[in-house]
Specification:
The chain is mainly beta. It is built from one helix and eleven strands, in the order αβββββββββββ. It is globular and about 55 Å long.
């Protein structure tokens, strides 16, 4: 009986060790790791992007809300991710061109069903004219076409802001049909943090 109890305690201990293996997101090389490891935002880099961000020009506005989700299950491991939804408006007609903000409170099948999600932290400051001291992140983006959103934290006139580069994977074209363009045009946007 004592042998059985020791064996159970030993196996339970091995399970707990594997479950508690933590890898900092920027240090992950994408290779196979122990089952149930946690790809964790150890240095709270994702926290820099949490909040409501707003952009406007003479005809349109863009509002993005980012939230951080921790310990999200993905296959055989867990990860901390940033999720987001957005509202893109035609301000001349006061109409929404796209609005997924209600999805933040919706019961979606998984966190990966949000319009914006991810946690990739590249080491090179590509795409942006000026580099931020805060690590840049790249996220998946989807409206009617999939793509990516590269984001860096900046300051504009003393205000917290983010600079984003939104790029769709490709415009969709079926023979005999018009090319499908993304709802939110590709390009650079500077969004100011809202209180």
């Amino acid at each position: 009986m004592k042998k059985i109890i020791i064996t159970i305690v030993f196996l339970f201990g091995l399970h707990c060790v594997a479950q508690n293996t933590i890898i900092d997101i920027p240090n992950w090389n994408g290779e196979t790791n122990p089952p149930n490891f946690h790809l964790k935002d150890v240095n709270h880099i994702l926290d820099n992007f949490v909040g409501t961000w707003f952009y406007t020009n003479s005809t349109t506005s863009l509002k993005i809300v980012f939230e951080k989700r921790e310990y999200v299950h993905i296959g055989n491991y867990y990860e901390d991710i940033l999720i987001g939804e957005y509202q893109y408006r035609d301000i001349t007609n006061n109409t929404d061109l796209f609005n997924s903000l209600p999805n933040l409170q919706a019961a979606l099948p998984s966190e990966y069903h949000h319009k914006i999600f991810g946690n990739y932290m590249p080491t090179t400051p590509i795409h942006f004219a000026n580099s931020s001291p805060i690590r840049r992140i790249d996220l998946f983006f989807h409206d009617n076409i999939g793509g990516s959103m590269n984001i860096q934290k900046i300051t504009v006139n003393g205000q917290e802001a983010i600079e984003i580069l939104k790029v769709c994977s490709q415009a969709t074209h079926l023979e005999g049909q018009p090319t499908i363009q993304p709802i939110l045009p590709d390009g650079f946007y500077t969004l100011i943090k809202q209180p």
